[in-house]
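Onboarding guide, step 5: your first structure request.
Type a short instruction followed by the sequence, for example:

Predict the 3D structure of this protein.
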Amino acid sequence: MSPAAELAHSTAVAKGLRFYTDPDTGLMVMTEIYHKERGSCCDSKCRHCPYGDTKN
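The system replies with structure tokens like these:
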């Protein structure tokens, strides 16, 4: 992940946001906040998943 994407994520988390736009790709990305509110891993290898890799 690029430094710009890391900054975008940390800024979004600091603001309590569930999503942010990746500055490198323009795609919407779910923050760690979104994943924690979801309550479990969806096994899609999300960038900011706080649950770790559960398929190995």
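Each response can be followed by summary notes, for example: The chain has two helices and two strands.
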